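The data layer described in this paper is built around a simple, fixed record for each protein. Such a record has a labelled line for the sequence and another for the backbone structure tokens. For reference, a complete record is included directly beneath this paragraph.
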Amino acid sequence: MCVPGEPGVLAVIVASRTGLRSPVWIWGLGVAMNVGDLVRAMEAIAPTSLAAPWDNVGLLVGDEASALTRVLLAIDCSRAVVAEAARERCEAIVSYHPPIFQASKRFAAGSIAYELARAGIAAYSPHTALDAAAGGTNDLLADAVAIVEPAPLRPLEPRENQVKLVTFVPVDHVEAVSRALFAAGAGRIGDYSSCSFRTKGTGTFFGEEGTHPVVGDPGRLEETDEVRLETVVPLGRLDAVVAALRLAHPYEEPAFDLVRLAAVPGGPGYGRVGLVQTAPTRMVIDRAKRALGLAHVLVAGPLEREVYRVAVCAGSGGDLLDDAIASGAQLFLTGELRHHDALRAVAAGLTVVCVLHSASERGVLMALERRLAERLPDASFVRSRADQEPFVFM
């Protein structure tokens, strides 16, 4: 299978059936796409630092160095989805729900992880990171009921999920070092990449006996022109970025600082809440059904009143029910809710609309396909046909 690289470049991707998963160059400019590119694209869309502490997100099966030309998108990574990925010759699956959730001591034949590894198919899951991220699962659910300027129903607790990396580089090596840091995952701020700040200055050092300085000689105090290079690094990419720094930096002992950063108030979070144009409850429910392509939903609570404030939560909404009640919303749209939680919601005067678990999440796949295609234009993406909601209305 051939994929285009830079102009005038041909990369041959050896078929997975041979067991060789790396790009082979016929002649040499440009870089073939690999699973690591997918990991970095997903990190930009849904940073793993946003995931709930109990969740299992990121690359769960696979090798970042493996070649990538085709990706299957699904809500659940079932055996049928793995088989579909193999038929479609996809090297990776992005499944919203993690195929590996609880800790496991065995991956025997029949387990999803075993089947993925045997087929040479990587698996990546964003799950609650995509729920919390801007433009993710909950924002799309908020769009389904036309919430104006949706805000997180439960903002992320202030926590340190980024560090600032500060290093000092000889002037002639700044570009090479910064490119290595960016390629490893540093320098991402929102939708902007390769972000850094650079300040020229003078570095001093005294090389002890046995050192081999790049500039000057051991045994004497040296001064050299350097650039202070600053950039941000997600905690999940810190090891890779520091390794890239050590590899790309010309100094025997590169100096660098890691400064912990606090989360920005008013940032991402779980669920969404906000105002809608005042309308009868039934009209808001019908609007959600049309947007989600559903013929039926489950409803509990008052129906004959006007609604102007709505809360949403993709998937299981029980954990955010108290937040929805406290927010002053009249309607709570979610995937599913336990019986006694529904009774508690109704007692609090809240109308609950349950659309089934994966139906509340499935709309994100189209948006995710578009956003990945923008970041990885040389890969192709396909939404799974084998991935279906397990429950049906009869």
